[in-house]
C-alpha cells in the first residue's frame, strides 16, 4: 500500500516476519475503503506499530461491504526503517473507487 511508502523512506527494509488479519465492514464502498485503510493506519500508530510490506484481500463481499485482509510485515523499528512522513488520518475528501474494468482504481487523499 502506497500509504506506507510515506511512513518509511526505504520500504525495501520491511520484512514479512509477522501476519495480521483484519476484518472490516461498512455501509457502502467508500466507507469500506476508508475502514480498511484506517485499520492498517491504527496498527501502525499503536502497539504493535505494524507496517505491512504486502496486503492481500482474502475475502471480498461487495454486496454486504465486507473485507477480510491479511498484512505481512513487521513492527516499525526506527533503527531499521528510515522514518518518513507521519500519516495522521485517512480522509473521505475526493475519495474515489473506479470499478469499471478488470483492475480497479482507488484514489484516497491522506492527511499528513
UniProtKB/TrEMBL annotation:
One of its GO terms (biological process) is tRNA splicing, via endonucleolytic cleavage and ligation. InterPro entries: Archease, Archease_dom, Archease_dom_sf. It holds the Pfam family Archease. Residues 2-112 form the Archease domain. The keyword Zinc-finger does not apply. One of its GO terms (molecular function) is metal ion binding. Keywords: Calcium, Metal-binding, tRNA processing. One of its GO terms (cellular component) is tRNA-splicing ligase complex. The keyword Transferase does not apply. Belongs to the archease family. This is Archease domain-containing protein.
Amino acid at each position: 500500500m502506497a500509504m506506507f511508502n510515506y511512513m518509511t523512506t526505504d520500504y525495501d527494509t520491511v520484512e514479512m516476519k509477522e501476519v495480521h488479519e483484519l476484518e472490516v465492514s461498512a455501509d457502502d464502498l467508500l466507507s469500506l475503503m476508508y475502514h480498511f485503510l484506517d485499520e492498517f493506519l491504527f496498527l501502525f500508530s499503536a502497539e504493535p506499530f505494524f507496517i505491512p510490506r504486502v496486503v492481500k484481500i482474502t475475502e471480498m463481499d461487495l454486496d454486504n461491504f465486507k473485507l477480510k485482509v491479511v498484512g505481512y510485515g513487521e513492527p516499525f523499528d526506527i533503527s531499521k526503517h528510515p522514518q518518513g512522513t507521519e500519516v495522521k488520518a485517512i480522509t473521505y475528501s475526493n475519495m474515489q473507487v473506479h470499478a469499471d474494468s478488470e483492475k480497479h482504481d482507488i484514489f484516497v487523499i491522506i492527511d499528513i
